[in-house]
Specification:
The chain has helices at about 45-55, 75-85, 105-115, 120-135, 150-165, 180-200, 210-215, 235-240, 245-250; strands at about 5-10, 15-25, 35-40, 65, 70, 85-90, 170-175, 200-205, 220-225, 225-230, 300-305, 305-310. It is globular. Helix 3 (about 105-115) crosses helix 4. The protein has one domain (about 5-100, about 145-315): P-loop containing nucleotide triphosphate hydrolases (Rossmann fold, 3-Layer(aba) Sandwich), CATH 3.40.50. It starts with a strand and ends in a 5-residue tail after the last strand. Strands 6-7-8-3-9-10-12-11 form an eight-stranded mixed β-sheet, sandwiched between helices. Strands 1-2 form a two-stranded antiparallel sheet. It has a two-stranded antiparallel sheet with strand order 4-5. By secondary structure, it is an alpha/beta fold. It is about 30% helix and about 20% strand. The structure holds iron/sulfur cluster and magnesium ion. Iron/sulfur cluster binds near residues 243, 283, 298 and 311. Magnesium ion (MG) binds near residues 47, 48 and 174.
Length: about 325
């Protein structure tokens, strides 16, 4: 609720704060139990920063977050440890997030023991084998090191690690962006199956709309620290309202080889988050920008049930 992260920019010989990067600038959304909320946008739009704040890896500048009616940003010690068991994260680059000198069994065993989920090596081993099987690997893999696995297998281990503490929610930060397209769909199908079997809730972050389309129930489209549009995945694809969402959808290549229309792509570069445009942050690139857009910030308009649009056209 009204979540913000403004990073100070230091400058001058006294290293004073001379400005702020508005990485996340006042966004509000909810995630329903058991669903997948996709967060999509170009790099630097604030999606990972949002995920890290919800994980308590970054302190928010302002805002609140509630998990099971409890204020996440106020958790200390025991409650924080408990929260960090219930909410796990999967990262983009599974290699950098795996310890290179630990076998799969050592790595998962350490986590299981720290959280009291396995008391001795026998329990560790059987749980690690169980986890490997859940992600499509086997007991054959438990004594191996991260570099012995392919990218897709490493992401499976990243998922096994996230599952090891029996979480209720997983924040997936671009989990398939570094993988080949054929492997991407395997990992997405795995995540979907696990969600059904284990009744998981996902926040799924990606820069690619076609990736979030396959896994999300609802989608939030982010641009320069703000959510531009938030609605169900079907509504977003059938009835996109925000000019930015429309440009993103038009930029998805069609599989039709006879299509001759040149598709509109958002013109220009994303402006700097340290000096975002006045009024609507999208006005410098918006094909429908009008006079008011550079002067006045739009509000997050509820257009219909479960469909929100940040744009003057829908006030
Ligand atoms: Fe475009 Fe104006 Fe709507 Fe912003 S408020 S998206 S600039 S039409
Ligand atoms: Mg990111």
């Amino acid at each position: 609720k009204n979540l913000k992260k403004h990073f100070p920019i230091k400058g001058g010989i006294l290293s004073r704060t001379i400005g702020h990067v508005k990485a996340v600038d006042d966004i509000s959304f909810n995630i329903k139990k058991g669903e997948t909320l996709g967060l999509v946008g170009e790099s630097g739009c604030g999606k990972s920063t949002t995920g890290k704040m919800l994980m308590r890896l970054l302190e928010p500048t302002a805002g609140e977050a509630y998990f099971e009616d409890q204020d996440v940003f106020k958790f200390k010690r025991k409650n924080l440890k408990n929260y960090r068991r219930k909410v796990q994260m999967i990262f983009q680059d599974p290699f950098s997030s795996l310890q290179p000198r630990a076998t799969v069994e050592d790595m998962l065993g350490e986590i299981l023991k720290y959280h009291g989920m396995a008391k001795d090596s026998t329990e560790v081993r059987s749980r690690v084998i169980e986890l490997m099987e859940m992600v499509g690997l086997s007991s054959y893999h438990i004594g191996r090191y991260p570099h012995e696995f392919s990218g897709g297998q490493r992401q499976r281990i990243g998922i096994a690690r996230a599952l090891s503490l029996e979480p209720e929610m997983i924040i997936c930060d671009e989990p398939v962006s570094a993988l080949d397209v054929s492997i991407q769909s395997q990992i997405i199908n795995l995540l979907k199956r696990l969600q059904q079997e284990l009744e998981l809730t996902y926040l799924f972050i990606a820069h690619d709309l076609s990736v979030v389309q396959h896994i999300s129930d609802r989608v939030g489209v982010m641009y320069l620290g703000k959510i531009m549009e938030l609605t169900s995945v079907d509504e977003l694809f059938d009835n996109p309202l925000h000019p930015y969402t429309r440009s993103l959808l038009e930029a998805i290549p069609t599989p039709d080889p006879d299509a001759t229309t040149v598709r509109a792509v958002v013109k220009g570069d994303v402006p700097s988050a340290s000096n975002p445009p006045s009024g609507c942050v999208f006005h410098t690139r918006c094909p429908e920008s009008h006079e008011r857009c550079s002067q006045q910030k739009p509000s997050f308009n509820k257009v219909k049930a479960d469909h929100y649009v940040y744009c003057h056209l829908y006030e």
